[in-house]
biotin carboxylase (Micromonospora humida), 445 residues
Amino acid sequence: MIESLLVANRGEIARRIIRTAKRLGIRAIAVHSEADADLPFVVEADEAVCVGPANPALSYRNVEAILAAAESTGAQAIHPGYGFLSENADFARTVQARGLVWVGPGADAITAMGDKINARNLMAAAGVPVAPGTTEPATDLDAAVAAATEIGYPVMVKAAAGGGGMGMAVAADEAALRTEYDKVRAFAERMFGDGSVLIERYFPRVRHVEVQILGLADGRVVALGERECSVQRRNQKLVEESPSPAVSPELRARFLAAAVRAGEAVGYRNAGTVECLLDPATQEFFFLEMNTRLQVEHPVTELVYGVDLVEEQLRVAAGLPPTFDPDALTPRGHAIELRINAEDPKRFLPGPGVIGTWVEPTGEGVRVDSGYVAGNTVTPFYDSLLAKLVVTGADRAEAIERARTAVAGFAVAGPKNNLPFFAELLTNGEFVSGDYDTGIVGRMR
C-alpha cells in the first residue's frame, strides 16, 4: 500500500480523503492556499504546505507548486480529489513522470473522455447509446444551424471541453441558437481554452442517471450501481440518491452493462462515472459524459454497497485487488445526499461569510462530510459547497424521513445556506413520489 499521500485539493473532499488515508496508516499531506490555512483539512493532515494565495490559479491549480510540495514532503502519491486538476491529463502525466503514483485513471483515458465529441464517438463505436448530435465540432454558426436542423429542435449547445454543468445552453429554435452559439463558444474559450461546440438533441423531460465504475488493477471494469442526479439548478446537481427510483431491474442491467463497456473502451483504471440521460417515457438512455475522477456524490454509492471508494482508489493505484468480491456486489437499502451550499435557498446565488454557528445532525443513518467548522470563513474564491448531508434507510421512504429530521437538526449561521430549500424539497409531492425529472427545481420556483 502507498505510505504517503499528498491531497491536491481542499475543503470537504480533502478532509474526506485524509480521513481514509489516516485510517489506513498512510501519512496524509495537505496543500492549501493562504485563504484556507485554518480549515479542518489543514489541521487534520499529518503535514501541510501552503502553495500560494487565494486565487486557485496560483495555488490549487499551480502544478509546479503542488509538485514542489510533494517533493519537499516526500510524498509517494498524489490524489487530486475532484475539480481543480483532477481531470487534467497533462498533470497526471507530469505526476507520473516525476516518479509519483497518480491516484486516478490514466492520462490517455482522461484525454479521451475530456472532449465530449470525441467521447461520444468512442462510446458509439463501443455500442453505448448516444443521443443524436454532431460527430465533429460545429466550427461556425452556419455549421451549428445546419446540424440543429438535421437533429431537430430543441437542441443543447455545449462546450465540447466543458464539464460540471458549465458551458451549456438550450436553443428552442434557430433564433435562439444564433444567440446561444456565440455565448457558449466565448464561454468555452474563456473557461476551458477550447471554443469547440457540440450540438445535441435536447430532451425537455429527462432524468439524469449515472453509474459508478471502478477499473481494477487486474484490468477488469466493474459497476457499483447507479445514482439518480435529477435535482439540479443551472445544470448542477443538488441531490443524489441510490438506487434511482426510476430504474427497474431490467433497465439497471442495461445501464450497468453499458457503463462497463464504456470503461473497457478506454482501458479505464480507478474510479469514474458514466453519466447518462434517461427518457422516462420510453426508458431509453443516452451517454452524456464520463467523469474521470471521484464524484462529489460518491458517498451514496459507498453507503449502499458498503465500500470505501477512496480506499479502493488507493488500492488500484497501488496495484492491489479490491476489498470486495467484484462478482458478489449486493446493494442494501437506500441513500440520499444533499449538497449543503453557501447560497441563498431561492435564487441559489453565493453567500459567503464567517460561520458563527455550525451544528451537524447525528443519529442512525446520518453521515456528514463537511469542509468547515464554526469560526471558519467561507470565502468567495472557491465552490460554495459547505458539506454533504448523506442519509440511509432500509428503503427510500425511511431515507427521506431521516433526511427531513437531519435537515431540521443542521444549524448553520453566518453565510447563506440552502437548508430551507431541502426542507421544502423533502416534503414536495413530486420528489417524494420518486416521479421527478431535471425540471423539478424550476417547477418549485
